[in-house]
Amino acid sequence: MNRTRSTLKQGKRRKVKWFRVTLFFLVILLAGGATYGYSVYHNVAKAVSKMTSPLSREVSAKRETKVEFNNSDPISILMVGVDERKGDSGRTDSMIVVTINPKTKSTKLLSIPRDTRTLLVNNDKPNKQRYDKINAAYAYGGINETIDTVENFLNIPIDYYIKVNMESFKDIVDAVGGINVNNKYAFELDGVSLKKGPQHLNGIEALEYARMRHQDPLGDFGRQQRQQEVISKIVAKGKSFSTLTKYDDILKALEDNIKTNLTLDDMIGIQSTYKPAAEKIESLAMDGEGKILNNGIWYYLVDDETRQELSNQLREQLGLGQETVASIDSYSSN
Fold it and tell me: How confident is the model at residue 24, as a pLDDT?
């Protein structure tokens, strides 16, 4: 069954919130250091060091030189949510490309649907390229292949990434003392039963609430809405003084479930230099159509013309000249 453009746009209005509240997890580390003084800042620095995971390359092949915060260079960040379980490498549930230009004081967000069909690219293994859903790139080659694939799909450089493990929902929800939600559908998943209506969720319940997909009429889009709801509720609890006193538990949950190639110095640099870019945030839509191909698999298909238009907008945002995107035979079943 095809998913219409109007269905995709249901999630568009929530992209800005998803971006802000996810980045909040990192920003709150700096705020905590300023609030509680050196001892807490020291713990924050230790936590960030455990979260830091460099890429296999220092600079994107689509850039000539590394971006410099001191020069106010426009930057790009790929934010991904990954559902990793024991014995499973996982796939990306959410994928947002964030391009930030402090000179124009603007930020553009582009959400890539998880079922988008494209060429999976791994620059470290050029002979392993294949067509598949874009969320499979993580299962095959981790964050490096995910970034290489997105760069090829949009013909833009990805400078930084933030990967959030969905398991963090469980740990962080427990750290803030649980959250209140208004569940639209009663369901059971992995031994957890949730009733319809308002209720208080602990960490395990919140994780299943965020994971449920097949029993939701909106499928993946309904799950994305609940994931965003859980994150926003965590943030709301995190703003209270009583919750901030549990910062040790929150830091532990963050360091166990977030990976990024941003260092603490990078985070401080972004806060000081790129803050004006939050004055204007624009969400871009990726139009396409759902279709079952000859192999019997449902994909979200985005044509080359649409990819070119998006690439042009993002490259302009990054201060780069326009280039032609590589053609992808989206309707092939090979």
Answer: 44
Domain that includes residue 38, residue range: 5-170+257-317
Assigned domain for 53 exists? yes
Instruction: Identify the H or E element spanning 283.
Output: strand 281-284
Model confidence at 124: pLDDT above 60: yes
Whole-number Cα distances in Å, 100 to 19, 77, 104, 113, 295: 12, 8, 9, 21, 39
Using a cut of 0.90, tell me whether the model's pTM lies above it: no
179 within some domain:
no
The answer to whether residue 326 is domain-embedded is no
Return d(Cα 246, Cα 86) in angstroms, integer. 27
Question: Distance between the two ends of the chain, CA-based, in angstroms?
Answer: 21
Contacts of 91 (CB under 8 A, 6+ apart): 82, 83, 114, 135, 136, 138, 139
Residue 72 lies inside a defined structural domain of this protein: yes
Distances (CA, A) of 27 to 20, 32, 44, 73, 135: 10, 9, 11, 20, 27
For the stretch 190-202, pLDDT in tens is 899 999 999 999 9
Number of domains into which the chain is organized: 1
CATH assignment of the domain containing 146: 3.30.420.590
Tokens read off for 153: 């799909």
